[in-house]
Each structure stands twice: as structure tokens, then as C-alpha cells.
Here is the input.
Amino acid sequence: MPPGFTLTTEICTYYWANKRSYPKGLTQDVEKNLRKMEDLPGKKFGDAENPLLVSVRSGARSSMPGMMETILNCGLTTQTIPGLIKLTNNPRFVYDAYRRLIMMYSDVVMEKAAGIEPADDMGIRRQLERIMDAMKQARGAKSDTDLSADDLKELTVQFKAKVKEVLGKEFPDNHMDQLWGSIGAVFASWMGKRAVAYRRIEGIPGEWGTAVNVQAMAFGNMGESCATGVGFTRNPGTGENAFYGEFLVNAQGEDVVAGIRTPNPINESSRSEQSKDMKTLEQLMPACYKELANIRKKLEKHYHDMLDIEFTIENGKLYMLQCRVGKRNGPAAVKMAIDMAKERLCSKEDAVNRVTPSQLDELLHPVIDPKAEAKTKAMGKGLPAGPGGARGQIVFTAADAVAWKKAGKDVIICREETNPEDIEGMRAAQAILTARGGMTSHAALVARGWGKCCVVGCAGLHIDLAAKTITIGGVTLKEGDWLSLNGSKGLVYNGKMDMLDASESNELLNEFLKLCNGIRALKVWTNADTPEDAATARKFGAEGIGLFRIEHMFYGKGADEPLFHLRKMIMSKTADERKAALNDLFPSMKKSIKETLKNMEGLHVTIRLMDPPLHEFVPQQKDKLEQLGQALGISMEELETRANALHETNPMMGHRGVRLGVTYPEITEMEARAIFEAAADLIKEGTKVFPDIMIPVVSLDTEVKHQSEIIHRVYGEVSKARGVKIPYMVGTMIEIPRAALQAGKLAETMQFFSFGTNDLTQMTFGYSRDDSGVFLKEYTEKGLLPVDPFQSIDQDGVGELIKFCVERGRKTRKDLKVGICGEQGGDPASVDFCHNVGLNYVSCSPFRVPIAILAAAQSQIRKPRKNK
Amino acid sequence: MPPGFTLTTEICTYYWANKRSYPKGLTQDVEKNLRKMEDLPGKKFGDAENPLLVSVRSGARSSMPGMMETILNCGLTTQTIPGLIKLTNNPRFVYDAYRRLIMMYSDVVMEKAAGIEPADDMGIRRQLERIMDAMKQARGAKSDTDLSADDLKELTVQFKAKVKEVLGKEFPDNHMDQLWGSIGAVFASWMGKRAVAYRRIEGIPGEWGTAVNVQAMAFGNMGESCATGVGFTRNPGTGENAFYGEFLVNAQGEDVVAGIRTPNPINESSRSEQSKDMKTLEQLMPACYKELANIRKKLEKHYHDMLDIEFTIENGKLYMLQCRVGKRNGPAAVKMAIDMAKERLCSKEDAVNRVTPSQLDELLHPVIDPKAEAKTKAMGKGLPAGPGGARGQIVFTAADAVAWKKAGKDVIICREETNPEDIEGMRAAQAILTARGGMTSHAALVARGWGKCCVVGCAGLHIDLAAKTITIGGVTLKEGDWLSLNGSKGLVYNGKMDMLDASESNELLNEFLKLCNGIRALKVWTNADTPEDAATARKFGAEGIGLFRIEHMFYGKGADEPLFHLRKMIMSKTADERKAALNDLFPSMKKSIKETLKNMEGLHVTIRLMDPPLHEFVPQQKDKLEQLGQALGISMEELETRANALHETNPMMGHRGVRLGVTYPEITEMEARAIFEAAADLIKEGTKVFPDIMIPVVSLDTEVKHQSEIIHRVYGEVSKARGVKIPYMVGTMIEIPRAALQAGKLAETMQFFSFGTNDLTQMTFGYSRDDSGVFLKEYTEKGLLPVDPFQSIDQDGVGELIKFCVERGRKTRKDLKVGICGEQGGDPASVDFCHNVGLNYVSCSPFRVPIAILAAAQSQIRKPRKNK
Here is the structure.
């Protein structure tokens, strides 16, 4: 490794705190370190006879977006150029190095770090490239390696003139000016817009600062016995334990990444379609390759991880320039973690920590081929509501989606927003795209539950249902045209993009989850309404159902009959009418509960009593209304009057949840009876069942007392009549701020709590999930909110209520079981929060279960707690 | 006073705790006390020769609803009757006493206390009365005094047979059975339905229990030298310092109150229209009257209050039966409090404590004549949304209300619900009646602000706009028919009821408020949008404006022009369109603010920035929409699209308040500029102004930072340009639970907080103010909620957030000013809460200012705090 030194972050912070005035300590440090560095190569920085060149790069967190690129060849001036030519006897090399310096320095230091925003996106770099292109064209040169020393010398003259013209400043001709300019640029990049935005999103404190590496140059561009390359100690795309890398002969580092020349593979296992006829480093410079392969092993042993390395070969001598932990994709990350734990290269905890939740997520869904995506501009952007990628032909109605799917077509259903009547169409579609709605809109909730690709709230999307067209980003597409969606990023693409399948290596996933399960303390349950959901979640390792919505039976396939009885019940005016309708509803409700309890045999199933406002179920179609009127024996006019009476201005805070159970106790009674009779049947059949009954939208202790009295009474009746005991619990959702505050009182009668963080977030912020999309996006963009609180628990506000609640609840009832069943249950930061405040479990959509398992394990490593 | 004794509450509690088994201590006590009591008259309870009779009544909290009436003549049995006849030589008297005992005892003890619910409301008492009526008819008797001893004897035989027949039990013929039965009935009445319900509403603990008084009988029904009466030491209707009372010759206590015979006045000052030709006690029995008048003075001196007394004259000898603090109406209470403080009969604090807030309220509004109301059955019941009473002819539209009013008619406007476009009609009407909405619905808020009579959410009310009729309680009324409303109780009456004017004695009110002001620590501000509101409130003593809604100018008279500009702004699509509309809006906004600041010269005026969701201002009428489209130069279709885009599912939690200011900073900027320029103008004119700018709907500290930066910047600009300094503050509403939790952070930039308890209650409970009426009524009726939390602060939940918030806010900023401007600011229990948690002020509707002043003074007496 060429000698170098690092200026620490503290100096950087000091420097920035002092507004760009160089502190004395820093200048002394640099001088002292330069002298030390000069010892080894025996060259002097700035010396006319025997000049040392250096590279300057960010020395900490250098891979963060927005951090400065490396400046190479620093120290080349009219003073040092002649000496270097004399020394190397290679004027072409020297002028090549000089033109590179001018290009990099004028771009990175003189333009970007100075905060100059070029007009029309024509930065200085592109202007210089044009000059170079013109020169190549004039000389008939295919590549820059075809340019002669004189050509390059001429270029540097033209470059410097252009820099003066565009940036209004001379290119610095003093080695120390170049060095300090480069150092300043690294520090400046830490405070640049992109870096600041990234840190905000990732929650990285600005005070950390960066560091600066100054390193003696080794030259890969001195001729055919020189080369430069980058490598990974293992394959970053597959995770395979094989050295992987690329290099270029007679080049400098930037050429490998810039993609101007196609690089060679370092060995056979790095060979690709593109490089199939090229020589490898192993073939061209076997000694250097052998040394490099040895170093690769040493490095992995030392760092216990897969590394990203940079090297240069100067006249047959290998120099390592830098090494850092290598980036990898999801499947590779999982494979390497498992392998390294097996190889004892790292501990199990390290292995678990090495996979990020989004890497794990990559294994669970098909995605748009990243290569294709990198080349394509998205036509629109919405919220990333359902994971993975998808492509399909545009349809506009649920019926069409179902019909086209039957005809063997892949479709994407495009809607203003979706509602429960669209369910079958959404299921049939490859993906869902909506113009309105936020991360917890109907479409988003349903899609995430299924692990289906979905983009919602796509602001630029205009849907013309009559013409059957959509317009987005100025482009109009019609029914049947192809769209592709990236649901993990919220991007919409025109046309049919290449796809990568979901990893079929379930074995890999299972092995990794086993590692996590061996560590975590927090249990992971799932929100599941159907047997399919439950099966998926169980496969991933869910240990119970945290949310089974009793009203699920009114949506989707087979819902027609129960829905009809429900509607009769809703439209009833007298208790007698209502009871008759409930009696009709009872058999299908019992059947549905029985199926689910059977499917989850041996596990807890948390059944939430009726939650939505009743008017949500009032039919919109005329024929359905007429049918209903006939069944109830009332006129359409009367039916309309009753439907209108159910209308609410703010339904989210209206007559719903437990409030229905209080005003219509007969509903609660019917639900309890359906649950207990289903359970009794199963127990008699020898099935183990654990039904937990959960009361929603509670704000008063009197409400849960009122409801649990009904439930316990019905239990007594069923238990006596059927002669069985059922192991059941009664608990409450905590989704209203007042319920959180009253936890002590609620725990007097309630055996478990489950945080409904969707609603709790709504009420705590006063953000309607349906309406807040409009301003929430702006809030996160403007930095008023670090993150959408419907995606990740707001720990300052909502989190404080949760903490209060857990403390107070457990003070009253020591063994109170507490979980969360809101959408945030599958969000890693939220899982970490739940782990830390001592919840018993998180419950999330089936496809988030693996993510939650990983997050729970990482939380336990970060801050161990006793198992609960 | 005849001798007697009291069984204390402790024994009562013990008795009830032990489920109706008489404790030994109690029986011994009774025996011991009976013996003592017998000494003085020299008679013996149950003795055949010389029998003592006793009365039994509740001895504590006897005037509470549901408490048992007095049982007279206890101890009359077949054993004692002959002796008493011999002793008094007055068989008529004895049988009269006996038939009274049977009537009272069978009713109160054998039926009510035993919990028997008579069929068809035909209780035993009414059945016995029927027998007596038949007897009177048979004898041609006008009054029961016309019945002979034999008649009465015969009656008692028939009575006892009927009792046996109806209640299935013999009337007890043992004196001790009668006594114990009566004692048990007193205790039982404490646990009766009515008493329990009353205690729940008033927050009186059940453990207090009651006591029992057993007293030797004095007889007012032994002949013409006997009498019985009740009196008040001062006039309970006017407060005048004059002895007031009524009496009957040859009667027992129950006759005076029962109203069967018209009682005589005790003196001239007690004479009424009805009794104008009757003899007074002063005339009939001057010695007794003189003695009574002396006792009256002694009692007031002893008890320092106006007393309600009962007396009996037995053969020319005066006996006092009981005295207790007398009930009085509002004006009387205020007058007596002031007088007694002046007479040094009580301290200033006592005087203030003696007037209840609802008594004070009586002085502020006209009311339906209580006498008329007592005789009339209400046809419907809704929520008591605006105080006092009113009568008027039914109209259905705002325009009609205004037109009829102009034509000199009194009208009541009847609507499904009201909206801002109805404002002028509501102002013109005597009262407002709506079918929907709760205590904080639009109609309720507006009416309470004006002190106008209003009943909302009248569930049984059906309005047929086409037919111009209303149907309520089965009665259909048409436009122009008369209605009367009691807005303090929520009652609706058919027809034109007699009214009592609001007290014109402002002097009385002012004098009383001065007493209160001398005591209280909590400041009282007002919520006022118009100069009239402000003037009213100032007259009552408001010390600042706690809520001036900047959008008030878009409602009511003169709103057309600013509203038009506002609508242009709302419908703007680009920032430029919006800025142009804001420029047009600026002059009228500045003018309106200037007027108010001028009107409140020298006082703080808290100006709340734009609060409601924008779509609230989108016009409904087609012509207004067309006008708007023309002004903006866009098609109706485009206009509709823009209007639809503003639609929200849950507008209360949507894009409103500070969220508008964040997404459209130009709105905040315009508002700030209007405020500061108005203030600058006034200061230059020599007017003292204190504008406080309040940011609504805040949930994040970043929001207030964002907004206050704009406000401070605009201040700097205006201040510099105009060369004046303006004493202003910037603060925030606390109306979102998260804001309360984040108080510490908010106080970093905010100089004051004001609790918007309407919204805070909404979010903390998840109760939509517009929709919760449906179930809230049932919740309070079923006892799930002690009181509507929109009327009185929910101290357990919302109150806890308020406490947190005050603590945390003041921890950051010691001198943080904290107030409340929600509707509960005028509710006495809420004022008490605010006093105790250390708020600086409460702000309420102008007509609640006196109530708040009184409540604040009473709080200071109850729990003194240092002035802030």
C-alpha cells in the first residue's frame, strides 16, 4: 500500500465549526504528515526534481451518497511536470495524469465544492469531455489511450483555458493549493445537499463528520506493465465464495468505474458475457494475481467480512489502494452471512447483523432487473406501497382484471383509489397503481398483506375512465398498454421491463431465519384474514395471529351472502329486525371463524370484533340496493333515508368499533357466540384452539367492562351447553390516545393489549390516513417529518404513549400480554422500538414476517433483553 | 321543636354494607333514643294509654332527588288508637292521622322502598286516593276536612283492605314494625335508582350515605287552633330581605305542598294573586306569628344563610319541625349573597360560594316562565346547546329568517344542521333548532358565542323542506307555527309559552362579579370574532381575547367580497395564481384585524391563523361557482376537478391549520403582514395594541419553527419599513395529542400555549364532534361516560394531557403563558380544573364570561393559589 495519512473527523468538525478557516493544528498536521509520507518513496511533494503526487479522498463513510470522489495526481504543476517527465521518461503518462487532474479537480473542487450550479446541466466536466472528444475525433483515436503525449499536452492547455472561461478562475498551479483545495472539497461534500439529505433519511448525525485520506500516488497508467482494478473478496451478486474483480491495463482508477473502456476480468470466476474473450489478470500478470489472491484471503480473515478492494500495478508492482466492506445485493448478503458463520469467519450475531431488512426483502419478491432499471427513466413516482416489481397490461376495472387474467394475461389495475368491492380484481392483477391514497390506504394495506407490488398516491397520474386512458408524465397510455412498477421505490415505467424472479432458494431464507430465531426475544405474529395468508405466514415462521378481522368475510370471494345479511342488519331500524338479520349472519360467521381457528391449530388467533363504520358496507349499486329493500320489505326511499342517516362527516372518528358494540350489544353477543361455538366444535373434534377476543376503538374503561361482561356471559352459556372449556382471553386494541393514557384502568378487565398503531398515529397526529398523503409527502420532503409515521412508529409522540401504556398496563396486571398489530409491525425501526419497550410480540403482514424476525434478532443483539 | 333523634350516616352505611340486617348497635340506639324522647312529652311510643307518635324522615341530604318523603303519624295501631282518642277526645283527628299514615306508609315503605313497580303507573297511593275521592263524592264533601270521624274510620278499613289486596301484605299493626319499616325505607331510598343516577351526575360519592330523623309528632290537624306551614327566611324568588311563607289551618305538612288546598300567606309580603283575599298567620294567630318571626331572625344569625323552615301549631303552640338551607332562584341567590355580605351575615367568600354558576346564568338570558314550563310536556328533546329560552315562528331558511325578522316577527330557524352560509339567518332568529349535530356543532358554537337559545341534535325531529313542515313527537307543524325552546335543558315545546326577561339588574350582576374579581387568581378572557362580541365580553369583565378566528371575516355580513377572493385563492393551482388572490384578499383582512385590535385597545388579542380545511369555503351554489370560474378564467369542468381534489374523507384530520401554512407559506406570510401592518397603523395613531399570533392544528415542533420563522421575518420587514416596534407574541394551539406530548420542544420557540379542548377532546377520544352525537347520548345515558367531554373537560384523559403539557412547557420556558380557548372554558368544572393545573387564563364565549369569573373565584376559595 502506498504511504498516506488520514486527517481525522475531529479536525473536520473543528474546521467546519470555524467556517472554513483552516485551524493551525490542521495545517501543521498536514505538513508533518507530508514529510513522513515523503520518506518512503524518497520523493518530495512539490519538488521540481523528484516530485511526489498524491491522491485525496474521503477517509470515512466515503461510500455515502454525495461524498466527494477521489482526486488523483494532486501536485502536478508547471513546476513539477518537467521533473516528473525527466524522472519517468514518459511525457505521455505525465500529460495523461495532468489532464485527468484538471478534469477531476475543476469538476469536484472548483465547481461542486464551491456550490456552483451549472446551467443546463452542462458542468465543467462535460465541457472538458467535449473538448477531448473533439480531439479524439480530429486524431481518429478510438480511445484516449490512442492520444499521443503532444495531443494530451495540447489538451491540458485547452482545458485550462476552458476552466478559466467557465469558472472565472485560473486552474491552481501550486501543489499546496491543489492539496488544500482537495481537502476542503472533501469536508465540503459532507455538508453538501445530497449528503445532508441522505443523513437525514438514515438518521446519521451530522456531527460525525468525515475524514480525509492523502495518499502517495501509484500509477497504473505508466504503460503496459501497469494496471488498475477493483475487486470483491466474494461475489457481491450471488454471495458465492469466489474472488471477483475487474481491471484495466495502462489506466487510472476512474477508468474502471467510468465504463469508457470495458474492463478485463481478474480471473475465470469474474468472467462475464461481455468479457468472455478477454485476458484475465491471472493470465496477464500471474505473479501479481497470486499476490492479490493471497491478500484477499488475509483481508477477509482480518476484517471477517466481504471486502471491496482497489489496487494498482505500477510497472509490475502491486499496490493496494484501499479496502472497505463491500456492498452486496440481498441474496448475496444472506448467503455470505450464512457461509461466514459456518466458516467461523464471523459469529452468528455478526452474520445476522450483516443482512439489512431491505436485503432480506429482495429474496421475497420478484423485482425489475436492476440493470434495465438503471437505464430507464421513470415516467411517474408515487408511494412505495407494496414491495417488489411487476409488469402488466393496463386495465381499469376489477371485472376486467379478473377477465383478462383468466384469458392468461398479466394486468396492472389502475384506479383513482380502490375500495373493498375491487378486491377480486386486485387479487387477479400483477400489481396495483392508484392516483390517490397514502401508505395505509385500502390499496396499500391489501397489497402489502399479499406481498403484492403496489404504487399508490401517484400524484401525476390522471385516469380517464370514459376514454380508458391514463396520462402520466405527459404520456397517455390506453387499456392494454404495458406498464412496469417498482413497488419498493414507488416508480412507474412505461412498457414491459425485464424482471428477476423472487429467489427460489427458500432453503437459504429458512436457514437464515433459523439463525435469527436462535437469537431474538420478541415474538413475531401475523395479521391474517384468510387461510392462505395464515399458511404463508406460518411458513415464514409466524407464531400466532395478532389480527384476524372478523369483518374480513364481507370482502372478496364468497362474501355475497354474508354481506347481504350484514347489510340487512345495518339497515334494520328496530332491535327485532336487527336480531333477525344477525341470526341469518351467524352461520357464515361461525363457519369462517372455525376455518381460521382450525388452520392455526395450536396457535393464538386474535379475533378483532367488528371495527369499520357501518356505512362502509352500504351498497353503492342500485340493483343491490333494490334487492336489499325487497328483503327488508321497505321502499327505496326509506332505504335511502336509512343509508343517509349512517353518513358521517369524519367516519374515522365516528360510530364504529366498540361503539357499535355498546349501542347494539346484540352484535357483540352474536360475534362472541360465533367464536365460542366454533371453538367448542373444534375442541370436540380434538383440535387445540386459542381464540383471543379483541375489542377495537376503545377509549373508556367502561366500554371494555360493558363488552367483556357480554363476552363472559356468552362464554358461560356456550361452555355450559356444550360441556367444554375454551382457553380464551379478552383484550383491547390500543388505538385511541385516551386508551393509552387509561391503560391502568383498562388492564383491570383486559388480559392483553394490542397497539393499533395505524389509528393511534392518526389520532395522535390528527392525520387522516385517507387525506394526509397530500401534505405528508411535502412534510417529509421539506424535512418537517423525518419519516412517514404511518410507515415507521413516531417514537417521540406515538412512542411515548406506547411506553406510558405498557408501564401502566403492567403495573395493574403483571402478566399483561402486549403486542402491536399496526402496519408498522413489519418496519425494522418500529420492531426495534417494540423490542426495547418490552412488547411480547409484533404482528405484521405475512410477507413482512421474515423482515420482522430479522429486525427482532438484530434488536436483541443491539440491546439484549430477557425472553418474555 | 318537638324532641327527636338522628341515626347517623355511619350506621346507615354499616347497615347497607351488611345487606339489610339490622346491626345490634342500631337497634340499641333506637331503643335508647326513643326512651329519651319520651321524657319530654311524657308519652310513650306504642303505649296504649298515652301513646307517642313520631315522624320519620331523611336527616341528611333530604332534598336530593329520590330521597324518601317524611312518614308522619308513625305509631298508630289498633293498640294505640283508642288511647289517643281518649287522650285528645278527637276521634276525627285520630282517624285523619291514621288514614294519612296508611297512605304514606303503604306508598313509600311498602311499595317504593320494596322496589315494587306498579302496573300502568297506578301505584297504591293513587288507588287509595280513588277510594277517598269516591267517599268524598258519596258524602258530597268538597274537601277532606268535610269528612267526619266515621267517614275517616270507614276509610281506614277500606284502605287496609286495598293495601292487602294490591301489595299482598297486611298493613303493619305494630308500632315498632312501622318505625323500622320507615327507617329502612329512608336508607333504601339512598340506594334507589333516582338517587343513584343523581349522585352519578353530580359526582356525589355513594359512601356518604344518609341519616334518619325520628321526631315526636306535633299535630296541626287537631282543629281550628292548629296549623302547619313552610317558610323561607327571605324571598326565594327575588332575594328580598322579607320573611316569606304559607300555611294551612287544621292540616298536616303534606297538605301544604300537595296543593290540594290553597295555602294562606303568613304575612303581607307573602301574599300572591291567588291568596289576595286570605287571612295571614299574622292576622289569625298574631302571637304565634311574632314568635315565628323572631325565630326566623335567630336562625339566619345562627346559620348565616337563608333558611327553609317547617312549623306546626298544635292548639296555639308553635313547634319548629325542621330548618335547612333554602333553595332559591338565580336572581335571588345573587341578591342574597350581596346583601348578606353587606349585612356581615357572611364573609365575601361565603357570598361567592352561595351562588351556583347556573343560578348566575339565569341572570343572563330570558327563560321560559318556570310555572308555565312545569305545566307543559315537552314535545321533543335535544342537546342544550345555547342557553335560556325563546319562542318564535318556524322558518326553514336563513333568507326567510332575515325577511320575517325584518317584518317584525320572532322566528325560530329549523334546520337539519347549519353551516356558515346560514349565519345571517341564525343571527336574525330568536333561537335555532337542529335535527343533527352535537354540543360543538356549528349551530351550537355560534349560538353559545352569541348567548342565543339553541337546541341541537333533536333526534326525533324530522324536517320536510319541500312541504315546509317539521314533525316531532308525532306532531306536525308548518312554517309560521309557534315553537318554544328551553336551550338550557334542550327541550322543545309546541306553541307560544310565557317568558321571563333576562334580569335587567346589571347592577346586581356587576356588584356580584366585583366580589368574585376580588378573590380569583385565574384570568378570564373571551373568544370573540366581532366588535359586538368583544364589547359584550368586555362589559362582563373579559381581560383579553383568547381566540379571534382570522377566518371569521369569511362568514356573516360583508363577507361576500373577501370570501370571493379567498375562494379564488383556494381554487388556484399555481403559486402565482394563489399570490394574486392573496393580494386581493389582503386589504379586507387587514381592515378586519385593525378594527378588532382597535376595539380591544390595551388588551391582548390572540389571533388564530387560518384553521378550517379549505374545501369548507368551496361554494355550493351553482351561480357562485360560475362567477368563480369566470374570475379565474377556467371552465366549470376544471373548477369542479379542483373542488373535488379538495374533498377529504375525514376533513377534521386533513389538510388544515398549520398544514396549510406549511404547504402554502404565502398564506401565513399574508396573514402575518395583515396583522403587523394593522398593528403598525394603530400604534402610529396612538392606540395600544397587543397582537398575539396563534398557530393552529400543530403536532410537530418543526411546524412551529417553520411558521414562526416566516412570522418573525415579516415582522422584521414591516417593523423596519414602518419604523415601529410592535409588542407581539407567537404561540400555538394545543389541540392535537402529540402537541401536548411535545410541549417541551414546542416551548422552545413558542411564547404561549392555548388548549383547543374541542379538538383535543376529539383526537384524544377519537370522537368526531360532528358524528359522535349518535352514540355519546347513549353513552352518558347508559353511564359509560359521566358527562359529555365536549361540555366539560375529561379530566382523566384529556386532563392528563393538559397537565403533562403545562409541566413540560414551563420546564422549557418558565414564563410560558398558558390558557384554554375551547368551549369548555366556560364550564365551571373545567374552570376549576384549569385553576388547579395553573393555567393563566380561560377564554370562553362572551356570555360565559360571568360564569367563568364566578367559577374561578370559587376555585380560588376551594384551593387558593398564588396569582399569576
